[in-house]
Amino acid sequence: MGKESFQIGITGEIIAVEYLTQKGLSVIDRNFHSQQGEIDIIAKDGDIIVFVEVKYYSFRSYGSPLGSVRKSKRQSIIHAAQTFLYKKNLRQINCRFDVISIYRDSGGKTNIDYIKDAFYVN
């Protein structure tokens, strides 16, 4: 990932953290890495641990934000979530996987699509 792409990702995560905080979630970790994946944001929503994938676009792309999180990406997020839970010794806890998509419309306004329970562990 180039420096410009990295900075765009950081900007998207900052916007996402602000949005989630306004929605009442508490961010507990960012950019958590495991051997097979990464989670952009980990938050708590009451007693639920929320693993959030952030997609940041300079414009509205075709298709849904969820469509950009393909099966292989979902699997890597799930693996990272399992690693996080194991390392933090968290058992018998409710979790969910959300996707937040941030994009600018033709007028330059920032828009956010937030999908709770975007995917599940099978």
Automatic annotation (TrEMBL):
One Pfam family per UniProt: UPF0102
Gene3D superfamilies: 3.40.1350.10
Keywords: Endonuclease, Hydrolase, Nuclease
GO MF, one annotated term: nucleic acid binding
Protein family membership: Belongs to the UPF0102 family.
PANTHER family cross-referenced by the UniProt entry: UPF0102 PROTEIN YRAN
Record protein name field: UPF0102 protein FD145_541
Organism: Candidatus Saganbacteria bacterium
Organism lineage string: Bacteria, Bacillati, Saganbacteria
